[in-house]
Amino acid sequence: MARSPALLLVLTLGLCCPGVWGHRHEMTARFRDRSITHPRVGQRLELECLTTKEDSGAFWIRQDKGGSLHFIVFISSLSRSTFDGNEKKSTRFEASKDGRSYRLVVKSFTREDEGNYFCVMNSNQVLYFSRGQPAFFPVPTTAAPTAPAPTTQRGITKKDPCPMTPDPETSKKKETNFFCEIFIWVPLAAACLLLLLALAVTIILCQNLRTGSPTRNPLHQADTYEHLHLLDHLLGAVTA
Length: 240
Hints:
By secondary structure, this protein is α+β, with helices and mostly antiparallel strands. The protein is 32% helix and 24% strand. It is built from three helices and ten strands, in the order αββββββββββαα. The chain has helices at 5-16, 168-211, 218-239, and strands at residues 27-31, 45-51, 57-63, 69-76, 81-83, 93-98, 101-106, 115-123, 126-129, 133-135. The relative contact order is 0.12.
């Protein structure tokens, strides 16, 4: 459709004629139903092209997503329509003129009909172009993936990655208590050992006394004195 003779004529006029981009009056291409923002599949879509002055007719042209131009219809000032291929009727479109409004109807809107619709008018050998009216299906929105909820595991203790550092004051107290215990328990252990030795000496003396009198046996008497001296020394060490 982009190579139709009518469209080539429009482009030729736009390139060769002076004042082709004149702005002496405005043109507006829009949906007749102003509440429409996006057409639906199979919808009967009506558009209109409004002018501010008399003219010699209007062209309806569609620009697809790729930027190619497609001639749809030329509507004369006498409301005569000429569709693509110089046809008087179309199975896809309807066209008419009502006052200064040139109307285009897409009978059943499909993907093939998506694009920007605009109209072109020739008035006193000057071409006037309207702004394009976008007619596209709404872009489907996809829901953002939701992150899975964190699962909790029972019976598993999680080790603290950051163990608490020991308190210096607490460590100092522990060291002090340790040294105090050493000073207490070491003398007690030594005293117990001395008491055991004194007990052993006492037992030996008792056995010697049972065996005989110390006055009758000089050697035995010397041993007894030696044991008594040792016992006295041990008792003195314990009491000290």
